[in-house]
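# nightly structure sweep
# worker-07 picked up a monomer target from the shared queue
# config: single-sequence mode, recycle default, output format = structure tokens
# input follows
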Amino acid sequence: MTWDHVNGTVAADAAVIREIACDESGSDGENLTGGNTDVFAHASVLLSAASAAGHVQEIRNRIRSPAEEYKANHLLREKHRAVLEWLLSPSGPLHGRAHVHLVEKPFYIVDRAVDLLLDDPGAAVSLFAEGRRTFTGEEWTSFLEAANHLLWVRHDEPPDTPHTPVARFFHLVDTLRGRHPGTPAADVLGRLSEERPRALSYRAGIQDGPFVLAPVLNPLLPSILHTAAHWSDGGRPVRLAHDRQNMLTPERIAWIEGEARRRGIRLAGLRLVVSRFDARVQLADFLAGIARRIASDELNGRGDPALSALLRPYTGAAAVWGDERSWARLGPARESGGPSAPVDSRAQGLS
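# output follows
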């Protein structure tokens, strides 16, 4: 199995393997509450190098910006609305050839914390919905921040004191239970409050164990696995060409490939490329940035119905998304015409 760097194709001995170009937008590592956006998007496209180069040139011809490298922000400017709509439209270059995996960061925090402490996806969905309805905005933000720090991989913590992530998280859990007794949210918090030993064991494992290859809070690695699963659905193997990213070290690439094999995903390999030299990855970069902005606007009640409708054919049902109102506008439609519900990643073994 070899890659032809001149022609941008897989050599004949692996001709059945499709190469998918990928990029992300909204990556803040494990800092999901203090980053620049509340949405992470991982986009992928299936196009030949020549076709992608032609589409990128068409975008440049339509926008006519002197910028050396185009980004999603060029397409998101109001004066270029027609170009954006063309790119996403059924008659555009990406329709049927691209996919976006979306992650709602606040829900991801709750999902990962509940997975660690309770291993109950239903409890995560309940806490996310009920917590936002029950707690004040300040209380909800404090809970998300405490859960974020509980899960965040650090190597320089002192033993458990009132200022460590474990103590801070469980102090807040008990405080919120006391303020909102008898509510469904308090019921889930009550279950969490009994699992302090699990949290302490998790933190001890981080301090005393080996280097963590796959931090539970970083959505990039599981999103890559979702992308590979989407394109290899039906059993056809795929290779991923991904824009360079500091998180994607050789060790983590090996971890991704190993996890794919373990989970039955037909991933033939993952290689890193420089986006400015690969038009396919440039298109994935455009789509990731566009999808993140459209999804974030919809999540925050300022969505553009036309753009949300154009994005829907690209979004996957396996998105890690907890807000039902926005997902009704962003998620892929069922065959009956109604929107699909968000799917918890653990239901598919891809968390």
